[in-house]
Amino acid sequence: MGKFRLWSGPTNVRSYPEAASETFKEGDPVFFSSGSVTIATDGDDIVGIAAMDATGTTGSDIRVHEITPEQIWSIHSSGATPAKATHVGNDYDFSVSTTATTLALGSAGTDAIIVNLDPRDTPASGSRVLVRFHPDSCWNWNAS
């Protein structure tokens, strides 16, 4: 639970150097710290989603799905049971930690907009939703 999966859109995979002592896994959000990728936490501008597990070796090439606004991602939700009538089209923030990442349905925000419910799940607490990142919540778009 708590991993991003690309649902549709371009993969935009790039390689970046790994920061020291990393333990992130494929599907975890990552950001830049001193020119290297590290696991993201709340408040970080996410550069992308790890396309592979961390190697544990500083400076190793890590493949990352760079996030762009035309991509749609599947992510588990937290809080309320996702519903088309009350959640689709609304903006929410991610809850990011080293153990899990979810879209916090009780936290209106500007990280992502829900575009639909993930059809693989029956709506329930923790079920997946399909989201599109806001351009201003992505590192790559903020940097320009």
Question: What are the SSEs and their pairings?
Answer:
Elements: E1 5-8, E2 13-17, E3 29-33, E4 36-39, E5 48-50, E6 61-66, E7 72-78, H1 84-87, E8 91-96, E9 101-108, E10 112-117, E11 128-133, H2 139-143
Offer a concise description of the structure.
The protein is 6% helix and 42% strand. It is built from 2 helices and 11 strands, in the order βββββββαββββα. The strands form 2 sheets. A 5-stranded mixed β-barrel has the order 7-9-8-10-11. A 5-stranded antiparallel beta sheet has the order 2-6-5-3-4, with no helix packed on it.
Name the descriptors.
mainly beta; 144 residues; single chain; 2 helices
Write structural notes for this entry.
The protein has 144 residues and is mainly beta. It folds into 2 domains: 10-66, no CATH class; 72-143, no CATH class. 6% of the residues lie in helices and 42% in strands. The chain has helices spanning 84-87, 139-143; strands at 5-8, 13-17, 29-33, 36-39, 48-50, 61-66, 72-78, 91-96, 101-108, 112-117, 128-133. The protein has a 5-stranded mixed β-barrel. The protein has a 5-stranded antiparallel beta sheet with strand order 2-6-5-3-4, with no helix packed on it. The longest helix is centred in the C-terminal third of the chain and has 5 residues, at 139-143. The radius of gyration is 14 Å and the shape is elongated. The N and C termini lie far apart (33 Å).
Number of strands: 11
Q: Which consecutive residue ranges, at least 5 long each, have pLDDT under 50? A: none
With helices defined by DSSP (H or I, 4 residues minimum), what is the helix count?
A: 2
Largest beta sheet, briefly? 5 strands, mixed, barrel
What proportion strand?
A: 35-45%
Percentage of helical residues? under 10%
**Subunit organisation of the chains:** single chain
CA(first)-CA(last) distance: 33 Å
